[in-house]
Specification:
single chain, globular, 54% helix, mainly alpha
């Protein structure tokens, strides 16, 4: 058994009292808030998203900026998108790939069963994306890896239909996020390369409009 002398005890008590006389300092880091986009900002990037009236040829796939804004914001919250630059990149990609929110499924070019959601994600990624969402795990399990059925599950929910771009960025393109957040073209080009796409074909115009509308810092 260890013993402590009375003098040692008094000295220790004195030190404890002296220390506790100072205010306790607690270091606390504040989590960054997710970025929020408005319908007006989406319309500034894609003017045709004000209405679906003139886009009846897309059937029930067309959604307006007012409908899309809360779904996009939900994806920013879910996947931790906190910067205007990242938000601009995601919205530019969604806008380009969906034809300004007209399409949720792949309709043009070589047929790809199961390709879709608003960033026109390839079927294999849609299956992995769907499997990552706990709320639909039973439906996804019932689809049993069928790409077409999995896509239909995803596009039946606005949050998941518009959430695939943010999921892909945070799952497969972490290395480009800081560059994208800067708002510069180099960051955008690195992101597009990670997507396996070409920076051309009008993508840069979407990016520039999104950066301007969201006030992303350009470097």
């Amino acid at each position: 058994m260890h013993t402590i002398s009375l003098c040692s005890a008094l000295a220790l008590l004195s030190l404890t009292c002296a220390t506790s006389a100072y205010p306790q300092i607690r270091l606390q880091s504040k989590a960054e808030e997710p970025f929020t986009v408005t319908a007006a900002q989406l319309e500034a990037i894609m003017s045709t998203t004000k209405s679906c009236t003139a886009n009846s040829h897309s059937g029930d796939e067309c959604v307006t900026a007012h409908e899309a804004a809360p779904w996009i914001n939900h994806s920013f919250q879910t996947y931790g998108i906190t910067t205007a630059g990242e938000a601009a990149g995601l919205i530019a990609t969604i806008g380009k790939e969906s034809g300004d929110f007209l399409y949720a499924r792949h309709h043009f070019g070589a047929p790809q069963v199961g390709q879709g959601t608003r960033n026109m994600q390839m079927p294999n990624f849609n299956i992995m994306y769907a499997q990552s969402i706990p709320a639909i795990k039973d439906q996804v399990a019932a689809a049993n890896g069928d790409a077409g059925k999995t896509l239909e599950i995803l596009v039946s929910y606005g949050d998941y239909d518009f959430g695939s771009a943010a999921w892909f960025l945070t799952t497969y393109c972490q290395q480009v996020r800081s560059g994208l957040a800067s708002g510069g073209d180099d960051g955008w080009n690195a992101y597009v390369t990670c997507l396996g796409a070409s920076p051309g074909d009008g993508r840069l115009d979407y990016w520039h409009r999104a950066v301007q509308a969201l006030g992303a810092k350009t470097t």
